[in-house]
């Protein structure tokens, strides 16, 4: 070695002090990896259960709070009564829960989660059903159920007989390697998958109804007719793919409405029955058909169902203006103020009165009596036994000509464009009239009619949803009733020319008596009793008596 080499070697750092080579940092799983991870998390059964719980939790406000799809008048009353809380609830779609974006998001995620979880399971289950039964374990005596015996039949005959006996019990059987493997009970897992697939179909059917169906509400007074047209609905909710041309041209006329109430006892005033006598036409050229519309007995017409929702009273008024002309004559639906005895309120707008437009605010007591202190009027019963109305008259400009929408249940511009008439308050019974001060006109309380609110619902996913629900019930019942069972039969030559037969069974859950029946069928009446697990199988002598096994 030269001096140069020696000097160079002396300047090198010791091996222990040399810095280790830098290992490159992992670059991460990347966007595709994150998407795959997110998909795996979404399609787990745990996520599906969480989303199912969120759907159930989100449906709670829809069952507690009034919904615009069923009772828009109750929603308006709730908002008017809860001026602070109501707008916040409305901001989060609590009065239209099942059409809310947040509910739709949970619904879609649940559908995707179930599809991604169940469909691969169904494919794997199908492959398992087509696969051969698992091979026999080495030691059948260690299984939860096992038995052994000896017979004079050859091993081939024993296995052939085992194949026949097990197939007769609907086992899938495979014979190989001196043993018969049998398996059945896949119907339980099939039922479990059927339940989840039916749940998936149920969600799809509900989505189908929301996409192509519609739901509308209409208030119909006795003697009035409703035609199935968009312009005549008080509230209408179409599906996203719904077209107005899909409305069937049927009409419904309310002939009479009757409500029955408890007359005595602690439940006095509680409604017991509602019955709306109607007649309808399924088309312009169809004949009128009568029908008794009741709760849970909807009318089926034009591919839709007409349900009876609520009811109330509609007083009939005749209003004459200052010139003596009849400016208004019709029934006016009133909304309940107090649900127990149906104290109701409403407004009458008379824009055709001259020279000043007239309006009235009225309160109806179906069965008017004096309060306990005698200072006011109350309703003692919801039925119209003694109907009385009190009216307060107004005159001025109702603002209907401005084009701005107004509620038919509320007076707009009180104290601004319309003013109360001094002395324009009166209590009226049916048939009584009141002449307004200043010769502004007259108002007559002609009588009382009843109204009912109808819900028209067309849901093309209703029948598929019903079928899916039935299949779900059948599937979950099957999954609980059927359990997976496996049976193995091994036959081998024993001492003395006899055949040793070992039988093992494995049942998901608790053992069943089916295994004992299988062993008894395999042994037949000619063989001795089977030994318990761990015991030495007994041999039969010529006379059928058990003999001691050979050493």
From TrEMBL:
The entry's keywords: Cytochrome c-type biogenesis, Membrane, Transmembrane, Transmembrane helix
Transmembrane portions of the chain: 48-65, 99-123, 193-214, 463-482
Protein name, as recorded: Cytochrome c biogenesis protein
InterPro entries hit by this protein: Cyt_c_bgen_Ccs1/CcsB/ResB, ResB-like_domain
Origin: domain of life: Bacteria
Matches recorded under Pfam families: ResB
Record field: compositional bias (Basic and acidic residues): 1-10
Organism expressing this protein natively: Actinomadura coerulea
């Amino acid at each position: 070695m030269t001096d140069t080499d020696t000097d160079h070697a002396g300047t090198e750092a010791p091996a222990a002090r040399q810095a280790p080579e830098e290992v490159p940092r992992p670059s991460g799983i990347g966007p595709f990896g994150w998407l795959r991870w997110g998909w795996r998390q979404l399609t787990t059964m745990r996520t599906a259960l969480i989303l199912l719980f969120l759907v159930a939790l989100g449906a709670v406000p829809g069952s507690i709070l009034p919904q615009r799809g069923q009772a828009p008048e109750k929603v308006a009353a709730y908002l008017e009564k809860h001026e602070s809380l109501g707008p916040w609830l409305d901001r989060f779609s609590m009065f239209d829960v099942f059409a809310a974006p947040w509910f739709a998001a949970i619904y879609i995620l649940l559908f995707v989660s179930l599809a991604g979880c169940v469909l691969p399971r169904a494919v794997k289950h199908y492959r398992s059903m087509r696969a051969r039964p698992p091979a026999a374990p080495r030691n059948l005596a260690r299984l939860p159920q096992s038995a052994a015996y000896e017979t004079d039949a050859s091993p081939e005959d024993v296995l052939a007989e085992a194949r026949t006996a097990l197939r007769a019990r609907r086992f899938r059987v495979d014979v190989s390697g001196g043993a018969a493997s049998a398996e059945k009970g896949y119907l339980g897992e099939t039922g479990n998958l059927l339940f989840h697939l039916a749940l998936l179909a149920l969600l799809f059917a509900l989505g189908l109804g929301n996409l192509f169906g519609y739901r509308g509400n209409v208030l119909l007074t006795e003697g009035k007719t409703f035609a199935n047209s968009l312009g005549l609905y008080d509230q209408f909710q179409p599906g996203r793919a719904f077209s107005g041309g899909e409305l069937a041209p049927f009409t419904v006329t309310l002939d009479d409405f009757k409500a029955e109430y408890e007359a005595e006892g602690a439940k006095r005033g509680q409604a017991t029955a509602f019955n709306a006598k109607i007649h309808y036409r399924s088309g312009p050229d169809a004949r009128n058909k009568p029908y008794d519309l009741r709760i849970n007995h909807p009318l089926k017409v034009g591919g839709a169902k007409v349900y009876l929702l609520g009811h109330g009273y509609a007083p009939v008024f005749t209003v004459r203006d200052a010139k003596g002309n009849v400016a208004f004559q019709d029934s006016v639906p009133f909304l309940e103020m107090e649900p127990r005895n149906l104290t109701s309120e409403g407004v009458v707008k008379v824009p055709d009165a001259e020279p000043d437009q007239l309006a009235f605010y009225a309160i109806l007591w179906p069965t008017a009596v004096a309060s306990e202190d005698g200072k006011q009027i109350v309703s003692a019963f919801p039925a119209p036994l003694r109907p009385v109305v009190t009216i307060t008259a107004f005159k001025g400009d109702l603002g209907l000509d401005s084009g701005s929408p107004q509620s038919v249940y509320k007076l707009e511009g009180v104290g601004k464009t319309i003013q109360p008439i001094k002395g324009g308050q009166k209590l009226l019974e049916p048939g009584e009239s009141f002449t307004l001060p200043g010769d502004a006109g007259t108002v007559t309380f002609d009588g009382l009619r009843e109204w009912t609110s109808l819900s028209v619902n067309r849901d093309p996913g209703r029948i598929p949803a019903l079928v899916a629900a039935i299949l779900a019930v059948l599937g979950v019942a099957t999954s609980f009733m059927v359990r997976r069972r496996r049976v193995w039969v091994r036959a081998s030559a024993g001492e003395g020319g006899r055949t040793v037969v070992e039988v093992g069974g494995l049942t998901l859950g608790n053992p069943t008596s089916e295994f004992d029946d299988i062993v008894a069928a395999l042994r037949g009446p000619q063989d001795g009793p089977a030994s318990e697990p761990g015991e030495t199988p007994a041999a039969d002598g010529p006379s059928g008596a058990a003999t001691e096994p050979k050493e």
